[in-house]
Design brief:
About 75% of the residues lie in helices and about 0% in strands. With about 180 residues, it is mainly α.
């Protein structure tokens, strides 16, 4: 179900980009350098995830069970769809569209909404908004801007976070669900 929601979000985002005349292709292109920046960009977010033990356990309580029903490839697809759909929507369409009038307003609005959409808990919403500002920065730097960097960061982070949340969940409920990597 989450895959359908994230896939639908990607389609809605592409429609909004067309409707609002936001040329995503100008800010999204392939570059090995930016792919590398995207991979490296995951590290600070993973450090925060490691330090946020209480919040991570709370998230495991909230979404561990549904994630436990997924196979490894389901988690990769979900992470990839979330990374692409959410980054194109928030850093691509929303930030750019509002940013046409005021760049800072675009960044702030996109990341406040990003935090609200991720409001599993108030703490998680604040963390997501902070991650959003980081992903906005990663979009812009190093120059020239490229949405590939936050898409890769978001997708890789989500996949690792999913596995970590599953580990947290299973460490407390070891016999309740199959392992995503198989029997």
């Amino acid at each position: 179900m989450a895959g359908l929601v994230q896939g639908g979000l990607l389609l809605v985002t592409l429609f909004l980009a067309w409707l609002l005349n936001v040329p995503l292709y100008e800010r999204l292109y392939w570059s090995w350098r930016d792919f590398g920046w995207g991979l490296a960009g995951t590290l600070p977010m993973l450090i925060v995830l490691a330090a946020a033990g209480h919040l991570r356990r709370l998230v495991a309580d909230l979404i561990g069970q549904p994630l436990s029903l997924c196979k490894w490839y389901d988690l990769i697809l979900l992470a990839a769809l979330a990374g692409a759909g959410e980054e194109l929507l928030f850093r691509g369409v929303l930030s750019s569209w509002i940013g046409a009038w005021d760049p800072w307003a675009g960044i702030i609005a996109a990341n406040v909404v990003f935090g609200l959409v991720h409001s599993l808990t108030p703490g998680y919403a604040l963390l997501a908004a902070a991650f959003g500002f980081y992903l906005s920065w990663l979009t812009e730097y190093p120059d020239p801007p490229n949405l590939l960097r936050p898409i890769v960061t978001h997708a890789v982070y989500d996949y690792i976070a999913f596995l970590w949340i599953l580990h947290e969940y299973r460490s407390r409920t070891p016999d309740e669900a199959p392992h995503p990597l198989g029997p």
